[in-house]
């Protein structure tokens, strides 16, 4: 097991470096520079801008800038924000909690809703339950996050006024768990819609395949209870492709959080990323990239380890 984890970490290192190189290169190719944000004063002289460019290291080649950033990262330093002048880690640490709350609640909500719907539609194919689940699946997978967010804000915040349109808490200054959950529900639902649709289809297909296996028919022929057949034989063996799909949901949830946080003014990493891109705040962009890339890579390793728990035939050699 430890040897397998070590191999996966070694594979993840070049993947991580490739992600950071790509993001850094794309950031440097974007029009505009951080100097335009720093020097809002139109009376700033060319000498002042050149001195600041040299101070920030922006006058060096891009690959030198990246290597300097990577060396600082190895030392545990994410740098200083051009926009705020604060430590990048200080700016990011304020936003990690809301983003983790939104993404993990969306992941849990998607799993809780999609797995029973997919399993029941496979257990009773071509029934009314199956048609309803299929309709939910297709509609959910086809609706983009930004469109669902705008529609939900109009319906539930403007017309019905059942949920707030943005933020984590009310403007009154009072903070409580019920208030947080009240503000969380709409963005969580919007972020979960597409994932629920794709996970229902994945679960239905996996359960249908297992239901046709010989060992399932044998268990039924021996008089095993249907509940035992479904839990001990069908669901356990059908979970491997479903777990794979859940692992693939992690980057989609993180990417969807960027759009969802913008719509609902959710103070997470997604909104900070958009703000940093607009202001060409390269250190913050790279800091958020490091966090997201590490979270996705670690999530994939955890999914691989779960395979061994679900299927004893899998050996980590």
Describe the protein.
It is a single chain. By secondary structure, the protein is an all-alpha fold. Helices cover 77% and strands 0% of the residues. The radius of gyration is 24 Å and the shape is globular. The termini are close together.
What would you call the structural class? mainly alpha
The gross shape turns out to be globular
**Oligomer category:** single chain
**In percent, how much strand structure appears in the residues?**
under 5%
End-to-end separation in angstroms reads 8 Å
Low-confidence blocks of residues: none
- Give the biggest sheet: none
Mean pLDDT: 83
Radius of gyration: 24 Å
Order of helices and strands: HHHHHHHHHHHH
């Amino acid at each position: 097991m430890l040897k397998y984890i070590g191999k996966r970490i070694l594979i993840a290192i070049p993947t991580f470096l490739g992600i950071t190189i790509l993001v850094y290169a794309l950031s440097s190719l974007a029009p505009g520079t951080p100097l335009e944000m720093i020097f809002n004063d139109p009376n700033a002289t060319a000498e002042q801008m050149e001195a600041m460019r040299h101070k920030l290291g922006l006058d060096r080649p891009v690959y030198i800038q990246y290597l300097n950033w990577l060396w600082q990262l190895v030392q545990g330093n994410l740098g200083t924000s051009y926009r705020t002048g604060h430590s990048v880690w200080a700016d990011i640490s304020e936003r990690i909690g809301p983003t983790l709350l939104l993404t993990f609640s969306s992941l849990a909500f998607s799993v809780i809703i999609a797995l029973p719907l997919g399993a029941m539609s496979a257990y009773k194919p071509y029934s009314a339950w199956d048609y309803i689940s299929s309709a939910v699946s297709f509609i959910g997978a086809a609706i983009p996050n930004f469109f669902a967010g705008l529609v939900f804000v109009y319906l539930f915040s403007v017309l019905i006024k059942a949920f707030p349109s943005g933020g984590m808490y009310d403007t009154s200054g009072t903070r409580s768990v019920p208030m947080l959950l009240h503000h969380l529900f709409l963005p969580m639902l919007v972020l979960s819609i597409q994932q629920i649709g794709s996970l229902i289809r994945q679960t239905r297909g996996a359960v249908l395949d297992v239901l046709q296996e010989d060992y399932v028919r044998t268990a039924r022929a021996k008089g095993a209870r249907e509940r035992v057949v479904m839990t001990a034989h069908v669901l356990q063996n059908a979970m491997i492709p479903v777990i794979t799909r859940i692992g693939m949901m992690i980057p989609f949830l993180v990417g969807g959080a960027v759009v969802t946080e913008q719509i609902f003014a959710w103070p997470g990493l997604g909104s900070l990323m958009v703000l940093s891109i607009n202001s060409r705040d390269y250190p913050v962009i790279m800091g958020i990239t490091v966090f997201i890339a590490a979270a996705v890579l670690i999530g994939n390793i955890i999914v691989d380890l779960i395979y061994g728990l679900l299927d004893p035939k899998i050996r980590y050699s």
